[in-house]
Amino acid sequence: IENLLFAGIVTNGGVASTGREAPVRDFDTAILHDGCASFSEKTHQSALEDLSTVSTLISCEEALQKLEQE
User: Counting Cβ atoms within 10 Å, is residue 38 exposed (0-12), middle (13-18) or buried (19+)?
Assistant: First the structure.
């Protein structure tokens, strides 16, 4: 396994913690920005902005297209 996709209920919780840990362990990562949510849109967007420094942000549709190409 070389690539990981992240989605989840709490963008600023579990998604953020695993999304930050994986690159440290040499995984290529992508966060599904529309596959995550937080208790508020502002918190969600802030977490995504922070995560964009360590991971690629893509939509669920973009992820499916990439998987279909492989």
Answer: buried
